[in-house]
Amino acid sequence: MAAVKETVDQVRAIDVDQYKYGFESAIESDMAPKGLSEDIVRFISAKKNEPEWMLEWRLDAYRRWLTMEEPTWARVHYPPIDFQDLYYYAAPKSTAGPKSLDEVDPELIRVYEKLGIPLKEQAVLAGVEGARIAVDAVFDSVSVVTTFREELAKVGIIFCSISEAMREYPDLVKKYLGTVVPTSDNYYATLNSAVFSDGSFVWIPEGVRCPMELSTYFRINEKKTGQFERTLIIAEKGSYVSYLEGCTAPQRDENQLHAAVVELVAMEDAEIKYSTVQNWYPGDKDGRGGIYNFVTKRGDCRGDRSKISWTQVETGSAITWKYPSCILRGDGSQGEFYSIAVSNGHQQVDSGTKMIHLGKNTASRIISKGISAGKSQNTYRGQVKINRKADGARSFTNCDSLLIGHDCGAHTVPYIESGNPKAKVEHEATTSKISDDQLFYCISRGLPTEEAVALIVNGFVREVLQQLPMEFAVEAQKLIGVSLEGSVG
Amino acid sequence: MLEIKNLHAEIEADGREILRGLDLTVKAGEVHAIMGPNGAGKSTLSHVLAGKPGYRVTQGTATLDGVDILEMDPALRAANGLFLAFQYPVEIPGVGNMTFLKAALNSQRKARGEGEMSTPDFMRLVRTEAGKLKITQDMLKRPVNVGFSGGEKKRNEILQMAILQPKLCILDETDSGLDIDALKVVSEGVNALRSPDRAFVVITHYQRLLDHIRPDVVHVLSKGRIVKTGGPDLALELEAKGYADFADEAA
Amino acid sequence: MTIATAPQRRRTRAETDLEQAFEAMASALPGDIGPRAGAFARFAAEGLPHRRVEAYHFTDLRSLMVSAPPPAPRPSAKTRVSADVFAAVDAARAVFVDGWFMADLSDLSGLGEGVSVTSIAAALATGDEVLAALGARLDADVTAESDPLVGLATTFYGDGLVVRVAPGAVAARPLEIRHLSSGASVSAFVRHAVEVGAGASLQVIESHQSPNDLEFHAHTLTELTLAEGATVAWTDRQKEGDQAARFSSLALSLGKKAVLDHSVITLGAKLARTQIFARLGEACDLTTRGATLIADRAHADATLFVTHVGPNAVSRELYKSAIDGEAKSVFQGKIRVEKTAQGTDGRMGAHAVLLSPRAEAMAKPELEIFADDVACAHGATVAEIDDTLKFYLMSRGIPAAETERLLIRAFLGEVTDAIAHEGVREAIEAELDGWIDGRVAR
Fold first, then answer.
1. What's the complex ipTM?
2. How far does A402 lie from chain C, in Å, by closest CA?
């Protein structure tokens, strides 16, 4: 059909160099020497004034990491990473630690303004939508500022950088850090445990419903820098929090490494909603540069009737290796995974989730929408496991892939394991191109092809977009458009 | 025929009590209508009597011709003459309608110590009864209820009733989802089965079904108990005034 | 002959058994030793596959295959032949005992003009040119070639059938291939090559049977090629003994507009793996269905690799298992659509019912798509028999046991109903009923 051909031509013509977050900022940095060794681990720990136990924890992880091998099971291909050719610590010089906004380098604030991230509380307050979002801004290796802290503190919520938390709330950090993603979990998580520099820490006290969205904004700026952030969110009994995460990086020829770890703990009747819009630099049209994104995200539904919901919109990175998961330990706990993964150019995405049902009457729901264009490869990889004791567990997976163009691939690899007859597991998946009939129908009603495609793609991902907080959903929808520019713009 | 005394039942999963001391006596040859607002326990009553899993009887008795049915499994209740026409008959892919009817009839006969019905007799019986209910050969050939419209499913329920010849028929919201023509066919089917040694319990939210299947006794069920009993006029009264009064009475 | 071994790992007992067997009999194996030695070297380099080998993730042969009985010698002619489940079907019959073709027990008459059936052992003895072509398709398929079970069958096979149907020929009656056991604890290795010419048609009924309480390993490697417009119906039914292991590999190649209707019924063996490697040409039509009924501690695996190479082909895979006792069923199915396969229509379903609290089901239905103009889908479910259906049937007076029987049969019916040959279908349905009745009695 002509319309399809036209679309395909347009996709082919996409200029992936149009990455609009590709600017670089001239901000002076305080950096660790290149390479990785015990000394570097000590350097990072010292820079952050960490307690002794934290250093030991890191060194233990580092030594373990040396004995591990890089995983190869994902459908992603890249030249070997030279872990000695990276900087493991870079901090904007002007900000040795989180300060009040007035003290933050104005250049830095401009960077975030350029990214559309509001760091000025009053600016947000004056916002048209009236929506308030507390932001923790992480620039390369450190958190530069956290907004709305006082207001959150009034209801007892702790929202700060994890470095600060280690100093101010060591007992809380010690109690939970590494309990969801153990240091030995996997190659990248172990590396992260050794060298992680900053990230966010959230603690919601019992019975508190967090009055605003919490958010972290990650930005990799320095050259040849690995970003290893670590986020820990704890929702005590009966509490609720919605957390957003966004990321970008400048456009560079070489590949940059991002290996984050996110741990969520939900106690009895608590709920954590974690949303990500990932827009790291995906590399240029020939596949040069771009972020290698190896991320371990896991939530532990520790208490009965707790709930953890992951929503992700993945449009960036050269390589995405990411499986936000839920351990459904508490009886009646629920896990959700809503995902949109858009790949274009030479991007490679291998992403999905794991739902491990341990408790009785646990429920999981997986909705995954993959869109492949250009020369990209887009894989959904997911596991649903029903433990023998998980009576009454329910799991539903729906996994759809859409192909735009002849040179991309869309793959679906689900692992379904059930050992309990009282559990019910359902999985369905489809792969197709944009329906000619739908396209024709839209075009015959007067829509230009491009808009028709956009409309259909939006319909395709709608179920997931609806899971995002309103302001984020609008951004995400635009981002998907930009990522597929030429075909859905 | 049916004697329910002080019946209490709750949902097994959460312990919520639905039936709270229900009493009901239905004699052979009678048609009783049970009406009531949504959530009164009408469907629960039919499920508990038929033995659907998921409910727990905590007190009271229910006997059919003097025999306690609550301890029986659903199949034995059926063999003892109890029949529930479902509000939402399930689809059973892979099980042919005829195979199913024959298995049900012969299982019941066997349980009662009667011989199996011969295939020609069975075929004749089905053909006659299906004809009356305007059930096509195609519907008989298909798997049970698979691809049937709402009306076809209800007609299929009445066909089963006609073939199994139960003593006590419970019709659970049989009128829901039926247009007026289908309602007539179904009601005629039911009326044809009325006899001095058979009783009916007709559960419905609306009065219109009772224009077609004339009840002898009308009960109002509210909050798990029978709160009022009367003649056919009670149904008309309810139609005019709604259930608001009775909700209060039960409270 | 010495085999290069990886020094860092201790061999399992089964691996040692197989190595010793190969060393002992390498010189005695018929035909060219080259391909056999090559296959065994590949096997020995990796050893038995384990859970980190993706294709064996759920069927870890390193732990499941404890030992390997010695390759079977040709049995004496006096073998007691058990009753044939397909006795009522009018068919030509090729009987194998411990993997060896038994001419005197077989009747290959009446297949009609253009159908030739020879034993591989006979062909090897006379140097039949078909053997040169044997394995060509395996070589073309990396997935099959590198598979350790294919490697073992390639190494050790002694006999099998070469079946050729000339272009345009229509086999006058089905060919039944029966695989039996002499009662000896051995490993039987069989290799069949079936070539169906353009526009020709053939029906094959395969059955496998061995006694209980016998450690009997049955390996079968079948290469089936359908030329343009060929039509084949193939039913494979296995009821190996409760201590037996059954490894069956089927390498399929479908030419343009060829049609294959394949069913596999698994009723036995302690350890079973059925694997299908299919390469689909233009506008062909592959249907493969499976019904698995297992109990006790049985482990049954069905693994499919369906590769669409030509455009506009249709593939349908439907596998169902009913699992009782502490048994475990595994389904892995990959539909791969190559860039050349525009217009592919692929649909896969894997459904399991767990009949006991200790039963387990694993499923990995996979889509790997490199062409855009496709409509592919898969679905998988694992659950117990639907309570609502059970209650409905019981409320009509059907007792619990009978209700279960009806519902298990209905669940598997989608697979068995589709077997076109009435006699074959009825025989299989009777066996399923027998299994279910046996279950109810347990």
1. 0.86
2. 8
